Amino acid sequence: MTETPRPAEAPASPDASPPPASVRSTVHGYPRIGPHRELKRASESYWRGGTSAQELDAVAADLRRGVYAQLREAGVDDIPSNTFSYYDHVLDTAVLFDLVPPRFAPPAAADDRDEELRRYFALARGEQGAPPLEMTKWFDTNYHYLVPELSPSTRPRLVGDKPVAEFREAAEAGFHTRPVLVGPLTFLMLAKAADDAPEGWEPIGLLDQLLDAYARLLGELRAAGATEVQLDEPILATDEGRAAVGRLERAYQRLGSLSDRPALLVSTYFGSIGAPALRVLKDSPVEAVGLDLVTDDEGVDDLVQVSGLGATRLVAGVVEGRNVWRTDVPAAAATLGTLLALTDELTVSTSCSLLHVPLDLEAETSLAPGLREALAFARQKAEEVALLGRVLSEGADAEHTGGGGVRPPAFTDARVRARLDALGPEAYERPQDRGRPTEIPLTTTTIGSFPQTPELRRARAAHRRGELSEDAYKRILREEIDRVIALQEEIGLDVLVHGEPERNDMVQYFAEQLEGYATTSNGWVQSYGSRCVRPPILFGDVSRPEPMTVEWTTYAQSRTDKPVKGMLTGPVTMLAWSFVRTDQPLGETARQVGLALRDEAADLERAGIRHIQVDEAALRELLPLREERRGEYLDWAVGSFRLATSGVSPSTTVHTHMCYSEFGLIVDGIEALDADVTSVEAARSRMELVRDLGERGYKRGIGPGVYDIHSPRVPPVEEVEDALRLAVAHIDAGNLWVNPDCGLKTRGYAEAEQALRNMVEAARRVRADLRR
């Protein structure tokens, strides 16, 4: 969530560049989960065997038609298709072009829909004998994609028809759509080399072969009646993408020169792409280029540097696609007025896909009026781009359209600001002579949450509705904590957790108890697969009125002689997984959250808790896509974490946790956090970070995850043992912790119990060998 830049000023003489006859409107993509999370429920029912493949496909078709109808109703001119996915659009692209590792057996019959879906979901979730693809964050968002595994022997070829089938389906329903595809450059640069690939080989080596497959697909889309296709290339907003100008030119000269193709829109987002890349696209045969003009303020400068786009149509992303604040229509119209001098043809759009925001503000009835009026979800943002298109086409006065930017009432807390101003450098430092967190080599623990049973979820919902008394609800929570503590002791874990039965979500739980936050009832956003979250809205100064976790953590500690970890969500993650105010720098907001967490950590310590985990799952996620901006980010990100954790004594062990991101870029940041123990995802990424840390001589505690909790697959003891032996080869065993990749909330007890037993047994075996 970045600060919204100031729009470019309108030209001094707008009449000098008369508006084109028609300015059209579009969006890059749209939420696909349904207004009531229908896709989640249908998918999970299918995985359990309660829904047939035909029933699942019928739900999906209804959701797609609903999206097309909603966009038409909003007034959007050009409607995208192929933005739907059962799990992930990058995975869809891999399957479409037969880029599937050989460990996933192909369907026995080409027309067996159940077998086709089995293989598809196995790639995402794994199956016995076939670990899933690695999963990581989609650029700097909280959406997760599946990482394709490629090798020199991989042969890209078009084997699927999903984009064509969904285009035809929309046409039969009366909607002419623009199919959306992951661009070839982005797909290959986000892929990884398979384990059997030669050292130094990179997937981009398959570019020419993949372009042949794209060429065939474009021909089939043209034959089906598509007049334009969108190719998403967000990789161009990164340093790596900006450096690939030669490959960009090769790709779009090749695709643009095809004689049998629809018009091509190359869509870029999550930041500016730089003048060199923009010049390549301008000079290529593609018909349109989409630019994100919200994330940073360089996009218009790039256009000026290349002397405008001329005959290449500009799809101008002036409506924020990743945050929920209403667009300032007059300011956006002024920006668009500037752009009319830099292109012959203009389309108004969102800055990126609306996948990253909730579906419809109308579903929210409990938000405070002053705040609600300042918000726009996906449906409202579609209406905003349509409105801006009409403003430019019809010459309407933007000031009187009813779409002016509205901000919530100012909410500042002088006490919070005074406390922060009074802090000195010592508030960010812990003593360095802290000793080891534990004397046990390969200390076993979990990340925090345990499976949340249907009974527990029903009790929480009943309590929220007022149908279950406070006393009855707390009794249920205590019984669940008793069960979780007893189970961990019986399994043999060394450091325990209370299981978090009282928490709905690791961010929302704290947002509900902090001043300055608002939460939604139906503001669901897809995180990965069927996993949906409700990001809270951080609109004001943050403070903690009272303790948030002490009651449940101390109750759990009273039930065991083993140490129990206190569990907090860190300041960076509290921002990354929220929709954040844009009227002050992110770093200042993060410090406010860090100060509130500092108070909570102190209360936990006073209550006798000697292990406190402050999760920063999103530390890598918010890392700017360009290196020149990373130093400033890491300064405030690390500073807010240290503010939250430096108030406890040297004898208290500070843990942190990070998941499902590529951590190699932030190893310095991880060390700078100064946590005693850092647990990280490592099961899907084959212990890559452990090797990086070992090469650097990392001396703090590290807990590389050995159990992939996003898969129903239970890893056998031998697999976990092999992972631990690899870790021991790089990190001193006294500094190694053994844990799952992430919390267990989304898993069932049967699989989680067995996986933890296997994990503890594997640690026992490796420990035994170390003693010999």
TrEMBL record:
Keywords: Amino-acid biosynthesis, Metal-binding, Methionine biosynthesis, Methyltransferase, Repeat, Transferase, Zinc
Cofactor(s) the record lists: Zn(2+)
Region (Disordered): 1-34
GO biological process: methionine biosynthetic process; methylation
NCBIfam families: met_syn_B12ind (TIGR01371), PRK05222.1 (NF003556)
First-tier enzyme category under EC: transferase
UniProt cross-references to CDD domains, sorted A to Z: CIMS_C_terminal_like, CIMS_N_terminal_like
Annotated Cobalamin-independent methionine synthase MetE N-terminal domain residues: 25-340
Positions annotated to bind 5-methyltetrahydropteroyltri-L-glutamate: R37, E38, L39, K40, K137, N142, R531, C532, W577, E621
Entry annotation: catalytic residues: H710
Pathway(s) of this molecule: Amino-acid biosynthesis; L-methionine biosynthesis via de novo pathway; L-methionine from L-homocysteine (MetE route): step 1/1
Protein name as catalogued: 5-methyltetrahydropteroyltriglutamate--homocysteine methyltransferase
Lineage: Bacteria, Bacillati, Actinomycetota, Actinomycetes, Streptosporangiales
Species of the source: Nocardiopsis sinuspersici
Gene label: metE
Binding-site list for Zn(2+): H657, C659, E681, C742
Pfam families with a match to the protein in the record: Meth_synt_1 (PF08267), Meth_synt_2 (PF01717)
Domain Cobalamin-independent methionine synthase MetE C-terminal/archaeal residue range list: 442-764
Function recorded in the entry: Catalyzes the transfer of a methyl group from 5-methyltetrahydrofolate to homocysteine resulting in methionine formation.
UniProt-annotated binding residues for L-homocysteine: I447, G448, S449, E500, D615
Record-listed E.C. numbers: 2.1.1.14
PANTHER family reported for this sequence: 5-METHYLTETRAHYDROPTEROYLTRIGLUTAMATE--HOMOCYSTEINE METHYLTRANSFERASE
